Amino acid sequence: MGNVSGKTSNGFTYEGDYQLASAGRVNWTATFRHDGDYAGMRHGCVHGMLGMSTAAIDEAVKGDIESTWTDAA
Fold it and tell me: What predicted TM-score, i.e. pTM, was given to this entire model?
């Protein structure tokens, strides 16, 4: 299990965690805030992570969090 945090391109901060699932999948959840106020939660899954380093998994999860939040309809 790992933890990630960051700021999206549209100004929201997030804190999240992820865990390795089966077959190279990584499941994540993240909580978003804007100016300290709760803005929402999202969850997702990144595929193809089998044998990847922790740093690579962190970056893949952060990228998926960014796209899930900013590309939401």
Answer: 0.92
- pLDDT tens profile 42-66: 999 999 999 999 999 999 999 999 9
- Buried b / exposed e over 53-64, threshold 16 CB at 10 Å, is eeeebbebbbeb
Q: Where are the domains of the chain?
A: 2-67
Residue 44 near residue 28 (C-beta atoms within 8 A): yes
**Strand locations in 1-73 (E):** 2-7, 13-20, 26-34, 37-46
Query: How confident is the model over 11-32, as pLDDT tens digits?
Result: 999 999 999 999 999 999 999 9
